Amino acid sequence: MTEHAVVIAGAGPTGLMLAGELALAGIDVAVVERRVNQDLAGSRAGGLSSRTIEVFDQRGIADRFLAEGQVAQVAGFAATRLNISDFPTRHPYGLALWQNHIERILAGWVGELPVTFYRGRDVTGFAQDDTGVDVQLSDGPSLRAQYLVGCDGGRSLVRKAADIEFPGWNPTTSNVLAEVEMTEEPPLGIHRTALGIHSFGRAEYTIRDGQVIYAESGPVRVMVTEPTVGTSEPTLRDLSEALIALCGTDYGMHSLTWITRFTDMARQAAAYRDRRVLLAGDAAHVHSPVGGQGLNTGVQDAVNLGWKLAQVIKRTSPDTILDTYHAERHPIAARVLRNTRAQTALMRADDRFEALREIVAELLSMDEPRKRFAAMMTGLGIHYDLGPGHPLLGRRMPDLDLVTANGPLRVFTLLHGARPVLLNLGEPGSVDITPWAHRVQSIDAACDGAWELPALGAVSAPVAVLIRPDGYVAWVGDQTQVGLTDALTTWFGPPAAA
Ligand SMILES: Cc1cc2nc3c(=O)[nH]c(=O)nc-3n(C[C@H](O)[C@H](O)[C@H](O)COP(=O)(O)OP(=O)(O)OC[C@H]3O[C@@H](n4cnc5c(N)ncnc54)[C@H](O)[C@@H]3O)c2cc1C
After folding, report:
1. Cα-to-centroid distance, 349 and ligand 1 (Å)
2. 423 and 339 co-located in one domain
3. Which has fewest Cβ within 10 Å: 53, 157, 245, 279?
4. Ligand 1, atom 53: nearest CA belongs to which residue?
5. Residue ranges, the chain, pLDDT below 50
């Protein structure tokens, strides 16, 4: 039986990111993917949030995405746009880029790392014991792994086979989404009627001054709210009938390229871990696409899990560190589910909801609510509960410009290898972490920039910070080093024997 340290089921955005993170940490990782290549039929996610761009920047790959997408103020809550151009980040914007391109670029990066792919086959089941997991495949012999991670999407076989509950809310509304040719010119843009929302847009577009400018010709992407919640596979006929009911015409549509349905169903795995089996991405949480949070949440799940799993495999950390993955990431997706339910309710067609939308828009035009909601919707406000202390604790480390003995350096550059960093901004040589020197990079630097956090504003400048590989701050030092040994041990294992 072929063995790998970790087997990942599914090479969507989450599985790809996790494979990259584990490979960077030197772990033998294999990915089993149903699709024979990375091509994706249909449009799913339309872009990246600011924090996901930062996460890619932490690995030195943000430019690959920025070179292909369109930077724009894409954050929003229900119908209200949220401008983050004043946020303290190098990327105070989102990136419009279709998921097929996001996956292609991610797969290109993973392809540069030592990752084994088993494509064109399914994970069909598994059996776990005290030392590992036998992973059954639809084609070929089983694989043996120390850990199996289900990144196999909303209908996750891994989640079901692990018998992990998936409680939540049934759909109350459904939309058909398709790409077709049209002989008549449809009214491009988003339209709201008493029956719900429908929209027409060309697959090709540019964004100029915040406005979407569609290509003059080419296939049309249609989205239409269905009169009743659809459950079977949607057809061209369903779409045509829904459009005729709404617009009196289907604009002579033909040549369907793909068709799909999404709903506002919201469900979340009750546990992200069952011993040697873990869940990430859509396998762990599904919700309405409103607000564009699914792919972003999945990629960030992977970045939270990767280094922890790597340390368990290398035996530098006990397996209990994996429980912090659930403890930190479950509340994040629970909040996403909550805000998508609220946004779906706000999108309902009815004059009273129109009034409610106006009131919410008024509230969100005020500075403080705008900042808070934008921090939530972009992921920049994520705060893992690492206990009381400096506001930086459990929050993302800002990408500040540092001055070091070897010249200028950005904080994120230090994270390219997915290794932790002890950043000493005080007296050079004043922080000694020799027993962790082989695991944690230690660097003396100066930094004169302002310390400002999204939505929170200015915070006091720390004398030292311990930064995890996922870019979150695990310890903040003022004049003393109280708590540093504990934080190093908690996150990066016990000190090496002298
Ligand atoms: C209409 C729509 C619009 C969206 N818009 C946005 C947006 O703007 N922003 C955003 O962030 N998100 C958006 N999303 C959500 C986003 O598409 C998903 O959250 C994202 O794809 C989840 O990534 P994943 O890797 O977890 O799962 P998936 O992308 O579902 O990947 C799962 C992978 O596992 C494979 N697989 C499944 N079962 C098996 C098996 N048994 N064995 C082997 N392989 C298997 C599949 O082939 C697939 O490649 C949208 C979704 C929809 C439907």
Report:
1. 28
2. no
3. 245
4. 44
5. none
